[in-house]
């Protein structure tokens, strides 16, 4: 049995689409069972069982709790990943102990892997590219606006790794509006006064599609972002992605680069793109379409996943100096983590009563 711990609602966007596609891919290797990582249980393996999934920092989350149980034939981590210890250092214990780590990560981060503190673990770390179903992301932008009239868009949340503060400074320096679609914390309009905060949208909603079609560029400036799928979605819609290398998309066909370490230089680059001839941008859009057809497909995703798991347990590695330098961090406890622990420890028959208390 292959036990998969990953969000898996019927949605076309991550993380849920990843859980669904993992299950579809791994059915080729045997029986599969999906688990909701928000409802913590301890999975106890039978001989030959495989555990695969997405980690939560909380020690009583389903994956971590089950991971600690002896007897797994394989333990496979599937996770967005960058090399920033502050962002993903809580994964160190799982990366060291897993058989395989399928890292959802951009080329920028994977090129640095051999010189990172994970260098001794590189034989079991595999880059995993996601896919995109063209039917879920139809072409919305048949042609771009004329030079000087092109509009900027950011899609994402306001996690520090997304660089919303950088976008706010760029919008101020450019004197041009950057619209923002995505969830945000309270007070975002006050913290980022130079961004036009539109809030979250459902891409299947015609109003959301009309809003997307009003833009020409997707601007992503995250200082530590694994590989946001909004870039792939923008390619499918017909927008031109403009990305800092620390979004993972470095040297990627169909993506225009921008170095956001200097606001002045970044603004100069963005102004150049604003006035780039239409024929040149059409070539960029075509390169993005080719990339979606050749690299970022769910068929290729399934091939990567099944080929890795079918190899069986990874060979034992001789710890290198980088691996010996990895010291697993204490688990991060917060309100969400405490709630996870309570759900794990409280009997099922009492959980409705707890929910009633919370809502009263």
Verbal overview:
The chain is α/β, with parallel strands linked by helices and 360 residues long. The protein has 2 domains: 192 residues, 3-Layer(aba) Sandwich (Rossmann fold), CATH 3.40.50; 160 residues, Rossmann fold. The chain contains 15 helices and 12 strands. The strands form 2 sheets. A 6-stranded parallel beta sheet has the order 2-1-3-4-5-6. Helix 7 links the parallel strand 8 and strand 9. Helix 1 packs across helix 12 and helix 6 packs across helix 10. The C terminus is likely disordered.
Please indicate the percent range of residues in DSSP E strands (runs of 2 or more): 5-15%
The assigned CATH architecture of the largest domain is: 3-Layer(aba) Sandwich
CATH fold-type name of the largest domain: Rossmann fold
Q: Helix content range of the residues, please? A: 25-40%
> How many distinct folded domains?
2
Tell me the radius of gyration: 22 Å
The top-level CATH class of the largest domain is: Alpha Beta
Shape: elongated
Mean pLDDT: 89
Layout: helices, strands, pairs:
Elements: E1 2-5, H1 16-26, E2 32-35, E3 50-53, H2 62-67, E4 74-80, H3 85-88, H4 92-97, E5 100-104, H5 107-111, E6 125-127, E7 152-155, H6 164-174, E8 178-181, H7 188-191, E9 195-199, H8 206-213, E10 217-220, H9 230-237, E11 240-243, E12 256-257, H10 263-274, H11 278-294, H12 298-310, H13 321-324, H14 335-345, H15 351-359
Parallel strand pairs: 1-2, 1-3, 3-4, 4-5, 5-6, 7-8, 7-10, 8-9, 10-11, 11-12
């Amino acid at each position: 049995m292959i036990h998969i711990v990953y969000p898996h609602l019927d949605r076309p966007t991550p993380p849920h689409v990843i859980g669904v596609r993992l299950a579809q891919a791994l059915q080729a290797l045997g029986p599969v069972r999906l688990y909701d990582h928000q409802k913590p249980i301890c999975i106890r393996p039978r001989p030959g069982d495989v555990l695969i999934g997405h980690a939560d920092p909380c020690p009583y989350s389903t994956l971590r709790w089950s991971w600690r149980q002896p007897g797994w034939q394989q333990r496979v981590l599937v996770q967005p990943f960058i090399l920033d210890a502050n962002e993903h250092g809580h994964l160190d214990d799982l990366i060291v102990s897993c058989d395989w780590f399928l890292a959802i990560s951009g080329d920028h981060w994977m090129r640095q892997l051999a010189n990172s503190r994970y260098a001794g673990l590189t034989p079991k770390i595999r880059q995993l590219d996601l896919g995109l179903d063209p039917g879920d992301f139809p072409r919305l932008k048949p042609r771009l606006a004329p030079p000087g009239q092109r509009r900027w868009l950011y899609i994402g949340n306001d996690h520090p790794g997304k660089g919303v503060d950088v976008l706010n400074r760029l919008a101020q320096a450019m004197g041009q509006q950057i619209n923002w679609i995505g969830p945000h914390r309270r007070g975002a309009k006050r913290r980022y006064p130079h961004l036009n905060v539109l809030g979250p949208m459902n891409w299947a909603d015609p109003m959301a599609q009309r809003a997307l079609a009003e833009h020409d560029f997707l601007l992503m400036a995250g200082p530590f972002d694994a590989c946001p799928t909004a870039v792939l979605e923008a390619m499918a819609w017909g927008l031109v992605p403009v990305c800092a290398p620390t979004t993972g998309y470095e040297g990627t066909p169909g993506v225009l680069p921008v170095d956001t370490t200097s606001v002045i230089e970044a603004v100069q680059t963005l102004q150049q793109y604003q006035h780039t001839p239409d024929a040149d941008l059409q070539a960029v859009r075509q390169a993005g379409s080719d990339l979606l057809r050749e690299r970022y497909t769910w068929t290729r995703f399934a091939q990567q996943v099944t080929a890795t798991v079918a190899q069986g347990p990874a060979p034992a590695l001789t710890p290198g100096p980088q691996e010996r330098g990895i010291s697993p961090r204490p688990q991060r406890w917060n309100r969400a983590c405490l709630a996870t622990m309570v759900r794990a420890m409280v009997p099922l028959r009492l959980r409705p009563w707890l929910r009633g208390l919370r809502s009263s």
